[in-house]
Amino acid sequence: MNTHQIIEQEEQYLMQVYARAPFVLDHGHGCTVVDTDGREYIDCVAGIAVNALGYDDPDLQAALHAQAGKLWHVSNLYHTAPQAQLAQLLCETSFADKVYFANCGASANESAFKFARRYAYDRARSAPAGGFAKTGPSSKHVIVAFRGGFHGRLFGSLAATDRPKYQQPFEPLMPGVRFAQFNDPNSAAEAIAEDVCAVIVEPVQGEGGVHPATPEFLAAVRELCDQHDALLIFDEVQCGLGRTGHLWAYQGYGVQPDMLTAAKPLAGGLPMGAVLMTQRVADAIHPFDHASTFAGGPLVAAVAEALVTKVSQPAFLERVQDKGVYLQEKLAEINSPHIVEVRGQGLLLGIELDIAAADVVNAGYHHGLLTVSAGPNVLRLVPPLIIDYDEIDQVVDRLSAVLMEL
Ligand SMILES: Cc1ncc(COP(=O)(O)O)c(C=O)c1O
Q: Which residue, among 288, 280, 222, 235, has the nearest Cα to 107 in the 3D structure?
């Protein structure tokens, strides 16, 4: 089948929820993807911050092949070594004492919401008389989220995602979510009260336009959570696992969460999510409180272990930081009246434009460049973390050429 026929087939048989690019991707190598007509694109999307090690990493391939010959899936009724090993690695490279595996970012966040509600439920029930209701929903159930944040599109994660347009057709969503202004400690102080069981925040907002939190803001939110016995959840689905030049974005802030959600790059392109948590949180969760058929299966866990092992190397992370600075500097040198601001951390960069980001994305296709928008006017660059300096130069040249045309 040729390109045209594949696109027609897809339009006939696939539910149309995506606005897709007008070509069909066929294979990839390094940081490059190739379409069915043989055109090559430097990939600054990487599956939207997923393919951290690009398209043909030998260690990921070796882990996949080795595990594929042994065991792909068994129920979580049984122990498997890859899951246990990955959990240990994630704990040893973070604040966490325990890990729960999920299947994607949204399901990781929804798991974290359930854990927070469970944690508060027990504490509320043991509160002195006159404190909280002894039966029914705990009055300490509110989840605080922030304007511009993105946490997924299932009913709970969508409720915590500040996008009225995406929410309204599906209401009623999960009740009990309160919003505050991002990077505004006063607004956070108004929202975080005694009825709050958890606060969820992205240390660097991705979908919302690539906005890093200020250190003061995260520190203030941490303090408010402590004051009100609320759990702090960092959603590092997009900014975690090396993307900021730190293994975990929070490590660049020195502010520690009670739970952290990860997904996108975790299994190098296979679907996997995780909730990292302290022992205090884990102690509140009991058998059968939560579960998943697929989560943490041996095939994805084996690949994820290879990915985390590689991405957590200090030298690897240092290179991500250096390349992020280099890319940011090069972008700042582009002489285009359309660029309003370049911002971000590591290799999670946003270019605010005075034109529609979608026009730049589309024009980029003709220059062999894949980019993605983050809101109407922000162009996002989230290349594989293995991108080299030469490729960064090519990205900047191609982007300059695109902007000159518009
Ligand atoms: C910060 C953040 N959280 C959660 C999600 C949802 O992840 P998923 O699409 O894997 O459900 C995303 C997806 O873009 C995200 O960027």
A: 235
- Tell me if 152 sits within 8 A of 105, measured CB to CB: yes
Question: Tens digits of per-residue pLDDT, 308-348?
Answer: 999 999 999 999 999 999 999 999 999 999 999 999 999 99
Q: Where are the alpha helices (DSSP H) in 170-245?
A: 185-191, 215-227
Read off the DSSP letter of residue 240. T
150 within ligand 1 shell (Cβ under 6 A): yes
Q: Look at strands 142-146 and 339-345 and give their pairing.
A: unpaired
Which ligand 1 atom minimizes the distance to the CA of 239? 1
Strand partners, 290: none
pLDDT of residue 61: 98
**pLDDT of 60 above 70:** yes
Specify if 66 maps to a domain: no
What is the pLDDT, as a whole number, of residue 310?
98
> Could you tell which of 104, 163, 264, 378 is best to mutate to test the pocket of ligand 1, judged by most ligand atoms within 8 Å of the CB?
264
Domain residues for 11?
A: 3-57+314-405
At residue 267, the 3 state secondary structure works out as: strand
Query: At residue 70, what is the residue type?
Result: K
Helix or strand holding residue 343 (H, E): strand 339-345
Q: Report the pLDDT value the prediction gives residue 202, as an integer from 0 to 100.
A: 99
Taken as a whole, the chain contains a residue count of 406
Q: Is residue 63 in some structural domain?
A: no
Query: What is the CATH classification number for the domain harbouring 372?
Result: 3.90.1150.10
- Number of compact structural domains in the chain: 2
Say what the pTM is: 0.97
Q: Which two tokens stand for residue 1?
A: 């089948």
